[in-house]
Structures are given as structure tokens and as C-alpha cells.
Amino acid sequence: MGTSVSQMSPRTRGWNIVQTVYTTESIGVERAVTEIWRAATGEATNLATQLASPIVARIEQIASTSGSPTEIAMRVEMEIASSGSANFACEVARLAAIKTAQAPVESRQTLFREKLFAEASSYFVSRDISGFVGQNFRNQNVSEMVEFKQKAMESTTVSVRKSSEQLKKASWSEYVAGIVDDLRGKSKK
Q: For labelling, which of 22, 127, 140, 169 has a CA lying 20 to 30 Å from the CA of 64?
């Protein structure tokens, strides 16, 4: 995110499965998202733990308040800097907060939550998929690759939207755990 150096996914079983998804159209986008979240939450730097952290909850609170994208971005940057907790989840939350700031205040919390997970999916797709474009892959050209990435984000958003209603009264960490379980295919909706 924001760097000029592309960092490929680690060579683990989970990420190898995700890369296999990029080679065949027989695996649907929803299943691709499931495999991405299984791999991302199975790493040593478990994404679910990062997303459930208090700093991300505070960024959600900032994103849910009134203010322009610039004002929200400044407040989020100050919160991250003062927390000393800059990590991948903070970066995704920062991006989600800025995108959320364009919406009416009453819908910002819901939108932040959807964008938080969709932006994480987007990042994970982006870091590997460019190596899987061409005649022998599911995405034959750049347009198809962009479309696949968009569908993965939409699939993530739909899953978050479905799960959010059931998790309405959950604490932040319970909410994240429930959403991640659903994205990983562990929960029944």
C-alpha cells in the first residue's frame, strides 16, 4: 500500500492455494475471497488480530464523525502517530476512513466497516494477481484482472453487509472475529 516495491505473498500453503485461484475460472470469486482471508488470517502476523485492535476501533470512531476527507485523514494520522501502532491494519483503516468521509455522517460507520474489509481484500489480490495475467490464467488481460479485483471487493462487501446485522451489538473485537469467520467460510449465514 503506497510503496513502489511490490511485495508478493509469502510462499505458504494458504497463499499457494490463493495463487491457484488466479489460474482457473472454475473457482468462483466468493471462494477466491474465502481463500484469501484464510491465508491472510493464518499468517504469523494474523490480520484478524490487527483488525481487532483498539487503534482500528478508534479509527472507526473518527471515520464515523463529521468532517471532510482531509480533516478525517488528519485526525486518523494523528491517532496512528500517537498510538505508535502503525501496521497494515492501520493503513487499511486509514484508507477506509478517508473513503468513508465522502458519505453522509449517518452512514459512515457502516460504510467504514464494509470498506475496511474490502480494502484489505483488494490489497491481497493486488499484491499477487499481476503475475497471473495472460493466456494461461483466469484473467487474460489487464481489464479482466481489474474486473476480478473489483468483484473480489464487492464479494467482500456483500459478506460484511450480511454478517453485520447479526453482529450489531458485538464489541469491536467480537465484530471483527465474526466478520473474519464469515469471510473465511467458518460461519453459517
A: 127
**pLDDT confidence bin for 62, thresholds 50/70/90:** very high
Cα angle value 3/114/66 (rounded, 5°): 90
Question: Among residues 9, 22, 12, which one has the least CA distance to residue 145?
Answer: 22
- Residue written as cell 473518527? 62
Is 114 in contact with 160 (CB distance < 8 Å)? yes
Predicted TM-score (pTM) of this structure: 0.90
Strands (E), 12-89: none
d(CA 14, CA 28): 17
CB 98 within 8 A of CB 69: yes
- pLDDT value of residue 82: 95
Q: What angle do CA 175, 176, 182 make, to 5 degrees?
A: 95
